[in-house]
Write a structure and sequence with these properties.
heterodimer, A: alpha/beta, Aconitase, domain 4, 7-stranded mixed beta sheet, 9 helices, 7 strands, globular, B: alpha/beta, Aconitase, domain 3, 5-stranded parallel beta sheet, binds iron/sulfur cluster, 3-IsopropMal_deHydase_lsu (chain B)
Chain lengths: ~200, ~475
């Protein structure tokens, strides 16, 4: 059993949200965290940016695009800071995103993304500027080669932690990987005075 | 032997399998704390795989995030914000029963905010690795623990294996030298550290706080400092255990008792960073220059000494933040009229925090038009405070006295700040809408929050302290 389908390479138009420091409370406000499942959170992704208090649409790009056409989210500097809520990547993926690009991506959010198959791509300020300058462009993300190709042909490589990358490419299941280590974990508990 | 830092000593003692180029370390977890919001999907994953919680004895659950802080009605019905919130609580109750976990539920004398009750009961012990599906797990680092927040997938990993796949972070030591001025608290130190490091300055690092100012803080103050590590992007922040740590934990429910405690304490004192330990980064702050702080923007690093007023924006982000807050660069904080004051949360919901707030509210009244909410961090804090009569001070001043919970820190239980209202809050995040859609948040210490409640505007607490001395 694995958490997600293997990811290799895909092309899509980007969607730019240029605000800096987009935090997890913007991605999914806390009052939507009372759910006990992972499904259906796309409709409340960026809820307070998209809807007024009475639930009607605000004029926001996220209400206007076709999510299937824009599977790469380009955020302003420093994306995903704040809480550990995995509801943030669940909401972004349910909306339709498969990758998030920024100059910096917060630790826990990044780790949560990788566990769900939402690819976090950290780029330099130069590349980020190019994406922001042409927010209509199509990009290609190739995880096999760690390559991001912009519409003007610029190709850059990005880093993904090796184990997380293997999990994504091969559909390896991190939980299964840990479960295989149970005999060693038990030995560790015995030798370190941590047995039950 | 090479000199080791506190972080390295605790890390090394928990490595089941070391990391390699293509794989993370398998890190053993001593204590796993669970709450209703980030756990249901992890239990579902276990159920789907036919797995059981591997170490129920190392797993403890509480109800804090989505529970009401108002009392139940005469029939015992609790005023949940939605049916879904009630269902979430019932889901954790059911999961705890199925897996044989200790749940500090409504009937428990220790129920409370997860990062308040862990240390309070002595579940948190020096040298431990502690995780929870909540980013402020860094709080427990005040006891010399590697403590960090995890996502729900990882909650599942720990439930099933008591381990996590982790890469070792870099280390940074933040030394706060000197002596704090009167009226300056741990919260002011923390907000100064974050303002110095910046929003993401700690990303990728484990922090160690050191120096005379940190040594002089009480354990509550140290917890506040470690709690806010995540607001500079660091997943964990730690302080070496000392005699204060040992005295504070002695006799608590889950620590070893009697001679066994003294034996354990010897080991805990040895955890301090060795002379000559090397850090990837070192920062020094002169503690004697720190003054009562308040944030002026929409991220926790956008804070400044209250006496210095609102800074003039020098970039687009700051302009946007000021615009959201409705503040003008250069203005004095006293012009900022306050609608709500929230005293509570895992950052500042402990006895020392409530005492500091009560000292200012005593014999005074909350200003007309201000709603003040005091929410103890745990049942134990609530009962202690009531024993000391603090609740009467708050009630006499015109504040509300609630049951323990996260309440307006995260505003998912029905306690929230209305659109456009300005709150002075002792919690940890001032993001847009954090305390309710359209809410505006100023983060500050309990003393500053209480002073602001009484003054009706953002206020430096020292003016009220000086009055008392005169
Ligand atoms: S008080 Fe706030 S920060 Fe602390 S655990 Fe609750 S919601 Fe999280």
């Amino acid at each position: 059993m694995s958490n997600q389908e293997p990811i290799h390479s895909f092309s899509s138009r980007i969607l730019v949200l240029p605000e800096a420091n987009i935090d997890t409370d913007q991605i999914i406000p806390a009052r939507f965290l009372t759910t006990t499942t992972k499904v259906g959170l796309g409709k409340v992704a960026f809820n307070d940016w998209r809807y007024t208090a009475d639930g009607s649409n605000k004029p926001h790009i996220l209400n206007e695009i076709d999510p299937t056409e824009h599977r790469v989210l380009v955020g302003g500097n420093n994306f995903g800071c704040g809480s550990s809520r995995e509801h943030a990547p669940w909401a972004l993926m349910d909306y339709g995103f498969q990758a998030v690009i920024s100059t910096e991506i917060a630790d826990i959010f990044k780790s949560n993304c990788l566990k769900n198959g939402l690819l976090p791509v950290v780029v330099s300020k130069d590349v980020h500027d190019k994406l922001l300058a042409n927010p209509q462009q199509r990009v290609t993300i190739d995880l096999q080669n760690n390559a991001l190709t912009l519409e003007d042909g610029t190709v850059i490589t990005f880093e993904v932690e090796a184990f997380a990358r293997q999990c994504l490419l091969e559909g390896v299941d991190a939980m299964g990987w840990l479960l295989k280590r149970l005999p060693d974990i038990e030995k560790f508990e015995q030798s370190h005075g941590k047995a039950a | 032997m090479t000199a080791k830092s506190l972080f390295e000593k605790v890390w090394d003692a928990h490595v089941v399998e070391p990391e390699g180029a293509d794989k993370p370390a398998v890190l053993y977890i001593d204590l796993h704390l669970v709450h209703e919001v980030t756990s249901p999907q992890a239990f579902s994953e276990l159920d789907a795989r036919g797995l059981k919680v591997r170490r129920p004895d190392r797993t403890f659950a509480t109800l804090d995030h989505s529970i009401p802080t108002l009392r139940p009605d005469a029939d015992g019905n609790r005023p949940y914000v939605t049916a879904q919130a009630k269902k979430q609580v019932e889901t954790l109750e059911a999961n705890a029963a199925t897996h044989g976990l200790r749940l500090f539920g409504y009937d428990a004398e220790n129920r409370g905010v997860v990062h308040v009750i862990g240390p309070e009961m002595g579940l948190t012990q020096p040298g431990y690795t502690v995780v929870c599906g909540d980013s402020h797990t860094s709080t427990h680092g005040a006891f010399g623990c590697i403590a960090f927040g995890i996502g729900t997938s990882e909650v599942g990993h720990v439930l099933a294996t008591q381990c996590l796949a982790q890469r070792k972070p870099k280390t940074m030591r933040i030394t706060v030298d000197g002596k704090l001025q009167p009226g300056v608290t741990g919260k002011d130190v923390a907000l100064t550290v974050i303002a110095t490091l910046g929003f993401s300055g700690g990303t990728g690092y484990a922090l160690e706080y050191a120096g005379d100012v940190i040594r002089d803080l009480d354990m509550e103050g140290r917890m506040t400092v470690c709690n806010l590590s995540i607001e500079a992007g660091a997943r964990c922040g730690m302080i070496a255990p000392d005699q204060k740590t040992i005295d504070w934990l002695r006799g608590r429910q889950y620590v070893p008792q009697g001679e066994a405690y003294d034996e354990a304490a010897k080991g805990w004192l040895a955890l301090a960073s060795d002379e000559g330990a090397v850090f990837d980064k070192e920062i020094r702050i002169d503690g004697s220059t720190i003054e009562p702080m308040a944030t002026w923007g929409t991220s926790p690093d956008q804070g400044a000494a209250i006496v210095r007023g609102v800074p003039v924006a020098d970039n687009e982000d700051q302009e946007r933040a000021l615009k959201y807050m409705g503040f003008t660069g250069g203005e004095a904080r006293e012009v900022e009229k306050v609608d709500v004051v929230f005293i509570g949360s895992c950052t500042n919901g402990r006895m020392a925090d409530l005492r500091a707030a009560a000292a200012i509210m005593k014999g005074r009244k909350v200003a007309p038009g201000v709603r003040a909410l005091v929410v103890p961090g745990s049942e134990w804090v609530r009962l202690e405070a009531e024993k000391e009569g603090l609740h009467e001070i708050f009630l006499d001043a015109g504040a509300e006295w609630r049951l323990p919970g996260c309440s307006m820190c995260i505003a998912m239980n029905g306690d929230f700040v209305s659109p456009g209202q300005l709150a002075v809050s002792t919690s940890n995040r001032n993001f847009e809408g954090r305390q309710g859609p359209g809410s505006r948040t100023v983060l500050a210490s309990p003393a500053t929050a209480a002073a602001s409640a009484v003054a009706g505007h953002v206020a430096d607490p020292r003016q009220f302290m000086a009055l008392e001395e005169a």
